[in-house]
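note to self: the first set is below, dont mix up w the second
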Amino acid sequence: MTKPSTGEFWDTPAWTNRQTGEIQASKNFFRQLTPTNILMILFHEFHHFNGQTTDEKACDLKSIEMCLNLGYAQSECIYSIERLFGAVEGNDAIPYEERMQAVVDYAIRFNA
């Protein structure tokens, strides 16, 4: 996927224009995903627009909340995010590990 502002390669499954709400998704990336993975990404991206935020963790938490509120199993919602974050390695993985823990903690509290 190319970054709209610069045209350079951008390693992300999707991107949201917070002014228009347009979501651009990587067709190659999406072909590898389960339907729940796709929903979680779209929920996440929707919250960037709806919440007018660049806060990735806030969008992660909103996406898990939406998934759980729709009645998906806790394990399925968590796995969907875990699968996306699992591809990140090395020093780049640290923020994802923190975001993943926040998602797990939220899901556990949601079902308590």
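second set (the one i keep forgetting abt)
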Amino acid sequence: MSFPYGEDPLQAKDRPVLVVATETRSALVRKITSQDQSRRPHEYDRLPREASGLTKDSWIRKSHDTVLLSSFRRRAGWVTTRV
């Protein structure tokens, strides 16, 4: 999934997301980052790699974004435990 990166909306970065729900053309997602967010517990939850299929421990944003289903590039894995 490609999301704007930094302040420049023309620059984007591929980023894994957790799909929370889908509708006909859109999905409700939570962004995932590998950058340590332990100092922002009100904004992020820890996501162990064992639970996500990702290559390293990550952090998942508590807030949701709505994106078009056509924005997805590939499926990276499945979450095996409740986050």
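remember for set 2: The beta strands are 2-5, 8-14, 17-22, 26-33, 44-47, 58-61, 65-68.
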